[in-house]
TrEMBL record:
Protein's recorded name: SPRY domain-containing protein
Residues of the SPRY domain: 239-352
Organism of this sequence: Paramecium primaurelia
Organism ancestry: Eukaryota, Sar, Alveolata, Ciliophora, Intramacronucleata
Domain of life per record: Eukaryota
One protein family per Pfam: SPRY
Amino acid sequence: MIQSCKCDDGGQKIIGVCTALNCQSQRASCVECLKQLHLQHANKFLDLKQLSVFQEDKKKTFSYLKKFYNDFNRLKSILDNFIVSLNIEAYEKNIENQTISQLNSLTDKLVKLNYIEQSGYLIKSFQNLIQNMEDAKNNIQRLKFEYTLNEFISPSQNICLSVNSSQLQMQIILSLYRQQQNKNTLVIQEKIRFSQQYKTDNIILKDQETIVSTTDDKFGWVLCEPGIIQNQFVKNFAFEIIKNDWLAIGICHKDQFLKQKGNFDIWDNNKHGCYLIDQSGKVFSQLKIEENNKSQNFKINNQDIIIIIVDKTSKKIQWINQTQNTQIWIMEFDASQDFYPVVCLRKSSIKVIDLK
């Protein structure tokens, strides 16, 4: 039995659901909810019959994922038994101290391991499997990023209509949606890499310029390319914390930042050209001196994935901890200049991640 809607105009019948990924409102909606909450993505609204068809269609995707999950578990079970039967780590390292039974068992396992190595096909299969698993892991991770991004993107201002005919209501809603489609925020997402040109000498880049670390105990910094240019309204990028001693991540005015040369200082003045947060919970702002080098209530840990959303329309930067699914900090910034993502670090390592 379909319940009545619990909105402010409560009591009306639920007529359908919203299937827009970035919708932050209640998905099951009455006519009034549809008009007030889902106007910007009205073409993603399904009535209950369409929802039933949608459910049947998505069962195919779920069944495929479930089959992969079951196949993976069966392979893991076979591999577990295989590893146990060939385990040579438990034997005494000193061969002379082993009993005859242990020598026989050890030799039998060594012969089998040698055959596995010489045949080559099992190792090759595992290498291909590992690569495929790595690709699958990265794709799952990317999907998580996109879920998180959509959860934190603010919906556009709602528009309330007042008409009587439900058919006319839908026509007006769809007409207004089409009119406003071209006003949606433009999101440009490009490949992002650490710069070989704009970095300190103690910075090492690895894995096709996606991982950065320092060679000594001194502070280092590196910009990411491409930067955030004037015609980009929104830029999204992310960093995975591999090793965490001290680090700060965010954006900077390249020209102003580079004027510091070797005199890197974000603590004693706010003319550093940066908008950053560090792992201990401090924030640093070029725009507002009262927000520079101030402690806040958050921490960044190893393996955390931090998504940064730079919105030039609202003139705000958001830092989101995807691992903890929390919004860390929001900061205003001067949007009149071009920006570059920047990482500052000491005895740490960070990976930059594409958001496609």
